Amino acid sequence: MEDGVRYEYRVAATKRLILHESLRAWPVGKEQIWFERDWDPEAGKHDYSPESPTGLPRSRDIEERTLPNMLYLSKAVAEAREPVKPAFRWLVHRFKFLDLSTRSNLGRSFTLTQLDGNNEELKSKIVKALRHADIGIVDALAVEGAPLDQSFFEVLKVVDPEKFKDFSSEDSQPKRMEPQLFHKGPKNAKVALDWDRESAGTHRLFSLIGPWLDILSEGYTVCIDEIETSMHPIMVRELLKLFFSDKENTAGAQIIFTTHNPLLLDSTLMRRDQVWFTDKDDEGAVHLYPLTDYKPRGGESLIRGYMAGRYGAVPFVPRGLLGNFAKDGMIETESASR
Question: Could you tell me how far CA 281 lies from the centroid of its own chain?
Fold first, then answer.
């Protein structure tokens, strides 16, 4: 939804080719197919339809100049076709990906910038979230850290002499801000810990809470792979509950996430129509299907049903990872198998 209009954009592609692309809109409550394109391998080109779309007149000139590996939506925006700009704008500015994996560069800087900013309401929410996370934190500040090591400037002098000139004097050197977290001590005293002494879990929560609250505040749609990475399942539940709360999620933010944690199948957290599974067939193709296909009973434990394999989407390892366990749990030796 953008500017009060609902859009539906679909794309299927490989690294080298757009296989399908389409854009639909509901500007007056009725569906309009603005464009569809499908790759025709025999003709070696895309077929465009419909012949006379409503809402977005065809431009065969732009179609001919759209390369097979190029999105027609992007080309139409570049060619100043005004009707498609709201849909493009939503995809570029309101659709986000948040990488929580160990290879991501999600650091403390975003939360730190918010904590050091002028938005007092946002700072208060960050501190409040950290307090309620049950990790012993009672306050959080952005403080000036130790100056950059001299070796940094020696490297900068070689790598970027111009930038080194900008930092040639102490007054021109950038301030290093770092988080300062205070923990509850004896007799309610505040005990400050150096950032490097905080646990990896605390680092992850601090790094995540700033972007998380920003997503809620701005009403973004965010995609997250393996949301449980480096976090306790209860903490993940509490983060998700912010999305599902009408009080906290007033801007209509949405989240699409993957997980291997069956505890998130708790019906007090997730609606059944929100849950989808993926499973591989014998040829390695992945299939996506909803939990509702199985029509679970009202009082059925989804966690127990999933772990029992009732809905599929679980690893099937009947003989163990090394293939030496019989179904009754006894070790099957090589000689016995012969």
Answer: 26
